[in-house]
Design goal:
36% of the residues lie in helices and 25% in strands. By secondary structure, it is an alpha/beta fold. It folds into 3 domains: 2-132 and 301-321, 3-Layer(aba) Sandwich (Rossmann fold), CATH 3.40.50.720; 138-297, Dihydrodipicolinate Reductase, domain 2 (2-Layer Sandwich), CATH 3.30.360; 342-426, Alpha-Beta Plaits (2-Layer Sandwich).
Amino acid sequence: MIHVGIVGFGTVGTGTARILLENRTVIRERTGLDLNLKKIADLDIKRNRGLRLPKGVLTTKAGELINDPDIQIIVELVGGTTFARDIMLGALKAGKHVVTANKALLATYGGEIFRTAKKHKVDVGFEASVGGGIPIIKVLREGLVANRIQAIYGIINGTTNYILTKMTDEKAEFSEVLKEAQKLGYAEADPTYDIEGTDSAHKLSILASLAYGASYSIKDVYTEGISWISPMDIEFARELGYKLKLLAITKETDGRVELRVHPTMVPEGYLISKVDGVYNAIYVEGDAVGSTLYYGRGAGDMPTGSAVVGDIVDIAKNIACGSTGNALTGSVTVKPKNLMKMDDVISMYYFRFSALDRPGVLSKISGILGKYNISIISVIQKARQIGKAVPLVVLTHLARERDVIKALREINRLPVVAGKAVCIRVEGKETE
């Protein structure tokens, strides 16, 4: 029998406990492992979670789990980067294996955590930290281990994907959809981490660390959110044959790694553009396997709990065969490759200008774009109103971010342009 302790009895903690209790027999029949949930620590042990627990399982003291000699695996599900860090390091130093869903902790202190695990010859499982029930960590660490990872594109935040889907389908404003998402429980009362891209950036740093065998942190990721996106830009994207998604992107080009999270226009024909609602999808391109796509629920008590229990089972197998200490740690073995500065990123671009409807305005804008080596694929101009400001949309060929910034700065100063231009990066082939 292998004893398990859980620290944190919130949504994911409840789902994990439910799976361990209700599927204990199934797990034993499939693996030969008997997993016993011995302790759950949480500050609130009186609230009804709709789960019948054996007597004596609940405690308010996390230290009881760390100090219990019978508990071999501790599951950290409290979130945050302070108390959670103390719990994880304390458990690892006590010789206990740890499973976590805490992407913020790993993105901030992953190097310290994995070094500590290695020193004390214990494992850290973190499948649930990215993609909820999608086994993307196992895919990168095991399934695609023979590949050089060339690119990863991920919709890895269900809240923002739900908001953008509703804005697309209903032509609704961001603020309206956010309120609805909060009522439905898809967005937190304080949604900042989700809508400003921070959650996706945490997850991307973990994926990139696995993909390239090096340690990357949240500080390495260029990050933009979706709070400024308007239904007008979503509609123009549709006219141009694109859908708008918040993408987490990493690519390796000439030995340099891009790490960026931002709203992105994706061709409507791409599978990842068809992923809507609260679902996640992660596209991975390897030099041997080619293009692969992984899809599923990115959050929730049971999908995420499923990933947590999957790690528990993997570690329990290692314990049973005496091979712990090297199987589930971060696989970080090399120095980080040089990061590509955002200024050097090459992409296609969507611009929306509020330009006065006068002869020669387009030629002035296109002249400045040409000055900075930015060529145009197509132009849309709606609702002619002579002498008034109207939307002018430009889709470009591949251009360098540095040049785009300089060109937009100059265009924004034109007397025939009202306000700042909207700029959204575009992924896909130039011919599409």
